[in-house]
Specification:
The protein is α/β, with parallel strands linked by helices and about 200 residues long. The chain has a single domain, classed as Rossmann fold (3-Layer(aba) Sandwich). About 30% of the residues lie in helices and about 20% in strands. It has 5 helices and 7 strands, in the order ββαββαβαβαβα. It has a 7-stranded mixed β-sheet with strand order 1-3-4-2-5-6-7, with helices on both faces. The chain starts with a strand and ends with a helix. The mean pLDDT is about 90. Bound molecules: guanosine-5'-diphosphate and magnesium ion.
Length: about 200
């Protein structure tokens, strides 16, 4: 289980999407929230996915094939400061078209930085996932940066922006540095694809 991971390709245009029927798990969230690190830590790989301390690097939709069974799809992040409005619109359209035209998405991991309140764009994304009836799990990422006393506040921030019902989606605290939350995420994936 989860033994083989291959980077398949970057997609810049919806015409280049894989044509097979394999299910997809999408990763979405702000630029720099830790999506690429999430992939690497999940599969104990150092550089399967390229990480960067410069926000806004990933402009492509990146496909990772796991055990020839399903894809993890790393979507470009949103919300970094020096993006033009035009580029932001282009981002929104690419992601929305990708998600709404795609009938193969089994799950979305929506990563938020647990140190901060989710942003307006996070809320838009969450509403969009709900609208498209895509099951999602919120990942409260970078949890290694929280003191024990701050975990409650992180949950409160989430509820404040997304609403109380977000708790039913069982948010997971995660840290790619401390491997926190990894078991829960892998259990979710194995339930979906190895059940
Ligand atoms: N403290 C901490 N830093 C992280 C974690 N995950 C990622 N980072 C850092 O956040 C920055 C952005 O990570 P990256 O994975 O490239 O984010 P992406 O833009 O969402 O793909 C890098 O400097 C990472 O080292 C984490 O769990 N904890
Ligand atoms: Mg990335």
């Amino acid at each position: 289980m989860f033994e083989k991971q291959e980077f398949i390709k970057p997609v810049y245009n919806l015409k280049e999407l894989p044509s097979d029927k394999l299910p997809q798990v999408i990763l979405c969230g702000r630029s720099n929230v830790g999506k690429s690190s999430f992939i690497n830590s999940l599969f104990n790989r150092k550089s399967l996915a390229k990480t960067s301390s410069t926000p806004g690097k990933t402009r492509s939709i990146n496909f990772y094939l796991i055990d020839n069974k399903f894809y993890i799809v790393d979507l470009p992040g949103y919300g970094y400061a020096n993006t033009s409005i035009l580029e932001r619109k282009r981002w929104g359209k690419l992601i929305e078209d990708f998600i709404s035209a795609n009938k193969k998405i089994s799950l979305a991991f929506h990563l938020v930085d647990c140190r901060h309140k989710p942003t307006e764009l996070d809320l838009q994304l969450n509403s969009f996932l709900i609208h498209e009836k895509i099951p999602f799990v919120i990942i409260l990422n970078k949890a290694d940066k929280l003191k024990q006393s701050e975990f409650m506040q992180a949950r409160k921030n989430l509820e404040e922006i997304f609403g109380r019902e977000i708790e039913t989606a069982s948010p997971i605290f995660y840290s790619s540095i401390k491997n926190l939350g990894k078991k829960d995420v892998l259990a979710k994936l194995s339930g979906l694809f190895y059940g």
